[in-house]
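During the no-cost extension, the postdoctoral fellow (Dr. R.K.) reprocessed legacy sequence entries with the updated structure-token encoder. One reprocessed record is reproduced below for audit purposes.
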Amino acid sequence: MSDVPPSEHAPPQPSPPAIPPPNNPLSDDRQMPMIVYIAYLAAFAFPPLSIAGLVLAYVNRDTAPDWLRSHYTFQIHTFWIGLVFMCISFVLLFVLIGFLAAFATMAWWVVRCALGINRLMLREAYPNPTSWIT
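Re-encoded structure tokens follow.
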């Protein structure tokens, strides 16, 4: 008989597979751009949040990696273009077409935020952050 216990003759067990990190945008480097997108969408209920989102985008853009910098640039352009469109809509209220222009601007704002969030969740740079359309 051998002095070695039977457990030492057992073959080694394979280690469990590595668990991928959770796809939670609030727990990694995507946190701040996601907060800006959420602030932009919440600005429909409380408009100063859009200004807070703009400030956050300007503050974080220079230190961000290139793929996130494209999101910050996209967010900054979304704010300024949206502001111009809303001012034009306000002027057009006097000829009654401003309501349609304001609605179109709000729809444009939501679509841009949704597209940005989608790219952010996929960890992709925004392909053309300075465009006016998408």
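The chain has four helices and no strands. The first helix runs from residue 31 to 42. The remaining legacy entries will be reprocessed before the final report is submitted.
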